[in-house]
Structures
1.
Amino acid sequence: MITVQNISYKVAQKNILNKLSFVLRPGEVTVVLGQNGAGKSTLLKILSGEQKPTEGKVLLGQDDLHRLSFQQLAHKRAVLSQQYATNLPFVCEEIVMMGRYPHFSNKPAAIDKEIVHQCMEEMQVSPFAGRSYQTLSGGEQQRVQMARVLAQLKEHNLHSHKKVLLLDEPTASMDCLYQQLCLSKAKELARKGYTVSVILHDLNLAAQFADTILLLKQGRLVTMGSVREVLQPAFIAQAYDMEVNVLEYEEYDFPILVPAAHKRKTVLIRSVNQ
Ligand SMILES: Nc1ncnc2c1ncn2[C@@H]1O[C@H](COP(=O)(O)OP(=O)(O)OP(=O)(O)O)[C@@H](O)[C@H]1O
C-alpha cells in the first residue's frame, strides 16, 4: 500500500503538485488521468522514489518511501517510465535481464534466466531476444520494457501485497491488441495483490481496466473514486475542458465514453423534418 500524505512539488516557484493526499491499495489498479501537464508523471516519479516531494510524505507500507535505499526500493517496486532511452546498445534479452539486476550480484543465476524467458513469453517478445533493442518499433520497445518490469517484480520471498508496479503511459505506442495484453497483465498482478498505478490518456482503457481512478488538473486532485464515480461528464469537463457522453451497454460492465461534439444531431434533424 502507498499512502500519500499532503504532498506538494514545486519547481521555480511553480506548484506542479498541490497538497495531494490519497491511498493506493494493494489488489487494485489505480489509473491516473488528467490533461497534458496535469502533473501525472511528476506524481509517478514521486511515488517511485525518483523525486522527492517539496512538502508532505509518501509511505510504502509503514516506511517513509524517500528514506529507503535504491536497493530496497528496487526489490519493492518496478517502474516503466514515459521516457526510456531508445538508443540502448543492447539486445532485448539484456534489457529484460536489467530487471533482474537487483536480484544478483555478479552473474545471473539459472532462475534469473528462467524469469527473463518467462516474462518475454508473457509480453510476446521472445522472437526479439537476440535483436538489437534500437531496431525495434516503439510498441515493440514498450513490450520489452514491460517484460523488464515484470522480471524485476518476480521474487519468491516477498509477498505480492508488498510490491508496487508503476506504469507511465505503458500503452502509448502499442496497437489495440497489445494495449489489452499489457493492461490485462497489470490487472492480473493487481489481482495477485500488487499495488498497481497506471497513467493513461485513453478514457476507455481507463474505464475497462481501472478499479480506482485519480483525476488530476493542474497538480490538484479533481476527484478520486470508482470508474463510474469519476468518469462522469461533469468531472471530465472539469479536468479536460471537453464534453463527453457516457454510454452504457448491458453487454459490458464498464462505461464507454465518446466526445459529445461528434454526436449526430438526430433530435435536431427530426424536428427539422417534422
Ligand atoms: N523541472 C521542471 N521545471 C519546470 N517545469 C516542470 C519541470 N518538471 C515538470 N514541469 C512542468 O510540470 C507540469 C507537469 O508535468 P508532468 O510531466 O508531470 O505532466 P503530465 O501530466 O505527465 O503531462 P503529459 O500528459 O503531457 O505527459 C508540466 O507543465 C511541466 O512542464
2.
Amino acid sequence: MAKVISISNQKGGVGKTTTTCALAAGLKKRGYRVLAIDLDPQGNLGFSVGADAETSASIYNVLKGEVKTQYAIQKTDSMDIIISSILLSGIELEFTNTGREFLLKEAIQPIQTFYDYILLDTPPNLGILTINAFTASDHIVVPMISDIFSLQGIAQLYETVERVKKYCNPHLSIAGILLTRYNPRTRLSREVRGTAELIANDLKISMFENYIRSSVSASEAQSLQQNVFDYDARSHIAQDYGKFIDELLAKGV
Ligand SMILES: Nc1ncnc2c1ncn2[C@@H]1O[C@H](COP(=O)(O)OP(=O)(O)OP(=O)(O)O)[C@@H](O)[C@H]1O
C-alpha cells in the first residue's frame, strides 16, 4: 500500500516541483515503485520529466471521472507520472458537489497497491486541489526558501492542515520543513533558518536537518528534462536531495 506524500507550500517558487522530481527519482533509484501526480495547473513537473502533454490524459480527466486513474499514468525514466492540465485552474468553480475534498483520495485508491510511494506536487495556494492532496496524504513535506516572507506562510499552512485533520483526514502529519535554495554562507539565510526553527518548534513541526543548497544545476536539469541525479550526481543539489531522502526514510516516512 503506497504512502502518499504531498509536497506543499502555498508560496510560489519555493522548490515544490524540484523537490517532487528529485524525491521521486531518488526513491525510484533506491528501488521503490513511485508515482508522481502533478496537481499544479502550470504543469512544470510533467515538462521536467519529458512527459507527453499533447495526447495523454491528465489528472483533470481523472478527477472529472472521464478516465480511469490507471489509464492516465505515463512511464518515464525518472518516475511514473500523471500530468496536470491548465483546466485544473478552473476546478474551484467546476467542482462544487458535497464530498469534493475526497475526489483525489478516491481516484488513487485503485492504484495504491501498485506503488510504494505516491507523491503529490501541489499548486501554490491552499485551494481545493491542495485540500484534496492533504485529504489523500499520509504526510506533507513543506519546502521553504529562507526569506522572511516564507516564514509568514507557515502558520497559515498549519491552520489548513489542522482543518483537514479535523474534517477530512485525521491521520495526516507534517513530515517536516525542508529549506531549499539555501545558502549556508549568508547571514540572512542563517537568521531565517533560526527563526524558522523557532516557529516550527512552536507549532510542533519538525525541520529536516538536511537542507538543499542553491545550485544552477536545478534549472539546468529541468531545462534538459532530466532529474538532478542523472544530470550531475556530484552536484550540490543531487547530494543534498540524496541526504534529504535518507533522512525522510530514516524518519519512517
Ligand atoms: N536548490 C535550488 N537552487 C537553485 N534554484 C532552484 C533550486 N530549487 C529550485 N530552483 C529553481 O527555482 C525555480 C522554482 O522552483 P520550483 O518550480 O521547483 O518551485 P515551485 O514551488 O514548484 O514553484 P510554483 O509554486 O510556481 O509551482 C525554478 O526555476 C527552479 O529551477
